[in-house]
Every structure is written in C-alpha cells, then in structure tokens.
Design brief:
This protein has helices at about 45-55, 80-100, 105-110, 125-195, 205-215, 220-235, 245-265, 270-290, and strands spanning about 5-15, 20-25, 30-35, 60-70, 75-80, 115-120. The protein is α+β, with helices and mostly antiparallel strands and about 290 residues long. It has 3 domains: about 5-75 and about 125-145, Ribosomal Protein S5, domain 2 (2-Layer Sandwich), CATH 3.30.230; about 75-120, no CATH class; about 150-290, Up-down Bundle (Four Helix Bundle (Hemerythrin (Met), subunit A)), CATH 1.20.120. The chain starts with 6 loop residues before the first strand and ends with a helix.
C-alpha cells in the first residue's frame, strides 16, 4: 500500500475556556521532519506533538499549527513585585536621610509607583490544556492520514498503469531486437556484393563480422533486468511499510537499463521506442517522488 507524502488535516476541541484548533500540513521530504509552531507558554509540551505525528507518518515534512482562543473571560489577578517595593522603600529612606527629612512609609503611594502592581489574566498550564490539545491533534492526524492514503491510492493506480505502458514498450523492443541482426546481415551482404562485384564473399569472415555485431548489439540482459524491475515495482505496493525509497531506486535502475538499450541497439525503431520509454519513465519518477 502506498501513501502520498502530501496531505492536510485539521482537528478542533473545546475545554478550560478555550477553543482549540490544530492543523497539520505535510509535503515531500527525503526524511521525516516535524515542525511544531506553538504559543510560547506551551513550549514544554512540544515533544508530545512531535511524537504523536511520528507514530503515524514515516516520511515528509510536517508543519503543525496550533491556534487557541479564549471562549470565557478569565479571572484577573493582581500581582505585587515585592522586591521592587522593598527597593523603592529603601531608596526613599536613603533619599530622606540625604535630605535630612523625616520619612514615613505611605503604602498607597508606594503601590502607585511604576510596575509595583500588575494585573494579569489567570493562566492555564500546558498540562491542563494537553487533553484538549491532544484530542484536536488526534483528529487532525486521522484526517491527514486518510487524505494521504486516498492520494496514495490514486498514485498507485496511475503508477501501475504507467508501468504497464512501459512494459508494453519493452515488449515492442523485444520483438524488434532479433530483426536488427537479420537486417544488418542483409545490408552487410548487399554492401559487400556491391563493393566486391564479381569477387566471392569470404563466408567465414562475413559470419564473424555478423557475430561481432550481434554480440555488441545484444540487449537481452537489459530486457531481462527491466522485466525483473517491473515485477519488483508492482510487488512493492503489497508491502505494509513505506515504499517510496524502494520505488525511487527501481526507477533509477530502469533508467539505467533503458539508456543502455538505447546506446547498444543501433536501430532507429528501437531508438524511437527508447525515447518514448524515457519520457514515460520520467513521469513515473515524478510521481514516485510523492510516495511515502
């Protein structure tokens, strides 16, 4: 089974007075890379998001976006900066002594000084929010996996069709290959007959020359390896683990064999088929880049 590396999933949850949404977007990547974009106060649980994705995704770059909105008014708390108050008080005492003036501590005056009192909204801890974040995250991952699977099924159908088309071209080359030697033999005999006129052709030398050409132009081994690669390519889709790297390797090997056939065949018809085959194989390679 093949999964695509591209996909998107979104999940939502409510709790602790917050509306939470988690979005995951994945794109092609050679390895697995998970990037989590969290509000600063949730950095302590970043690894939990990463691990959850790693359990379901093996390859690709995954970007996780978390959005948190308040749905209820939070309690407001007044916080006193005690160290700052004491510093103000000591400084005022020193100033009174310097000016030889009596100092009386005035609490209400002190609290009006900058940053002594701060009004803050009550914060919900990352651990308290995690159950709701986790719920939204799981929903997003499930939808992501489903989308990647659906896209993978579409890619599978397309790739198997393309590999069948490529196999059809190889069949055409297989039928054509034996005729190349026969045609060469006929052309060589006609050429020698024309050049030598009434002189008899030395048959042993002639047969040797044809044999050398046949050996040099033989593509049987390449055709056998190509068919083997086709079988491995099709069989790969039955595997339960990610197959993208294996398919990519097989495509490289197919390209190597097709190039060799093109350089050895010494035949215009086979060269034409090879050009078409390389074009089809490039389309296969592009699609394989999307497979996990």
């Amino acid at each position: 089974m093949a999964n695509s590396m591209t996909g998107f999933g979104r999940g939502e949850a409510k709790g602790c007075g917050y509306q939470i949404s988690v979005e995951i977007k994945t794109v092609n990547n050679r390895f697995l890379e998970v990037v989590v974009k969290l509000p600063r106060n949730l950095n302590s649980i970043e690894e939990r998001f990463r691990k959850a994705v790693q359990e379901k995704v093996q390859r690709g770059r995954a970007d996780i976006y978390i959005n948190i909105k308040e749905t209820e008014e939070k309690k407001r708390l007044v916080k006193v900066d005690k160290d700052l108050v004491l510093s103000y008080d000591n400084s005022l005492k020193e100033l009174a002594n310097l000016l030889n003036t009596e100092y009386k501590c005035d609490l209400f005056s002190l609290v009006t000084l900058p940053e002594v009192l701060n009004v803050e909204n009550e914060e919900t801890s990352a651990d308290d929010l995690w159950p709701f974040l986790e719920s939204a995250l799981k929903e997003a991952i499930d939808r992501l996996v489903c989308m990647r699977r659906d896209e993978g099924n579409r890619l599978t159908s397309d790739l198997l069709k393309r590999i069948d088309d490529l196999a059809g071209l190889v069949d055409q080359i297989t039928l054509r290959a034996p005729k190349v030697v026969v045609e060469y033999q006929e052309k060589l005999r006609d050429r020698l007959s024309t050049l030598l006129a009434d002189t008899a052709i030395e048959e042993t030398r002639f047969i040797t020359e044809v044999a050398i050409f046949a050996d040099r132009a033989s593509i049987e081994e390449e055709l056998v390896r190509l068919r083997s690669h086709f079988v491995q390519f099709r069989d790969a889709f039955a595997a339960s683990e990610p197959i993208g790297r294996k398919l990519d390797f097989l495509v490289q090997e197919m390209n190597r064999e097709i190039n060799t056939i093109g350089s050895k065949a010494n035949d215009m018809e086979i060269s034409r088929i090879v050009v078409q085959g390389k074009s089809d194989l490039e389309k296969i390679r592009e699609q394989v880049q999307n497979i996990e």
